[in-house]
Amino acid sequence: MGRAGRACGVSAVKSKRVPRAVREQQMLDAAVRTFARRGYRAASMDEIAEVAGVSKPLVYLYLNSKEELFSAVIRRESAALVEAVTAAVEPDAPADRQLWSGLTGFFAHTAEHPDGWAVLHQQARTHGEPFALEVAAMRAEIVRFVTELIGAAAQEAGCVGELADREVAGLAHALVGAAESLAEWANVRTDEDASGEQEQEQEQEQEQEQEREGERERQRPAAKDTAATLMNFAWAGLGRLMDGERWAPEA
């Protein structure tokens, strides 16, 4: 009787399954980590399955192929980044404060999710369609959002007619590009880091990666400081532009 009860208990434990949605997120987490560290071409489904703690057939069952898995990763990380930026903006604050808070949200998110940012900024852009198109759509959404903020700043400064829509859009593209470059400088792993890891045993790799991540964390500027750096670079010029001052080359 006792033996039967124990057998029943073991069976009940074995039959307990992780919900599909939870398991899928575990796979995506493992894929983000692997793609960021190995690169898209070198990353294998075997390693992704191992990191996720599941079998390779289960990864294929849920996400069909390496290409679809990579696309799913890009969509998830893109949506999370856009949400972080828009949620960080203080809606009732002055225009400069809104822009600064949005930039702070961007830098905070990329610092907290460096693997996700590496996938978006390094991997997805370099492997053609449809991956590059997924990232371009995310970037376009952020540019539209920043365009609205700069447009609101122009309206607040009373110079709506002086700044053409095309010029505002150009300023937004320049600001987003500068933010991406700063995020890469602050957060993204180098190719040297990745290639060095590929030559190590798994235990040594994890230990050394933790040491490197700790060193990067100590050297990484705070998100607010990085946002302030960009504001000091960009907003002073925007402020002068909105005051009617324009640069022009000497004749």
UniProtKB/TrEMBL annotation:
A Pfam family that the UniProt record links to this protein: TetR_N
Residues spanning the membrane: none
Stretches with biased composition (Basic and acidic residues): 209-223
Entry's Gene Ontology molecular function annotations: DNA-binding transcription factor activity; transcription cis-regulatory region binding
Region Disordered, annotated ranges: 189-226
Domain HTH tetR-type: from-to ranges: 21-81
Keywords of the record: DNA-binding, Transcription, Transcription regulation
DNA-binding region listed in the record: 44-63
Domain of life: Bacteria
Acidic residues bias locations: 193-208
GO BP terms in the entry: negative regulation of DNA-templated transcription
Protein name per the record: TetR/AcrR family transcriptional regulator
Organism: Streptomyces kasugaensis
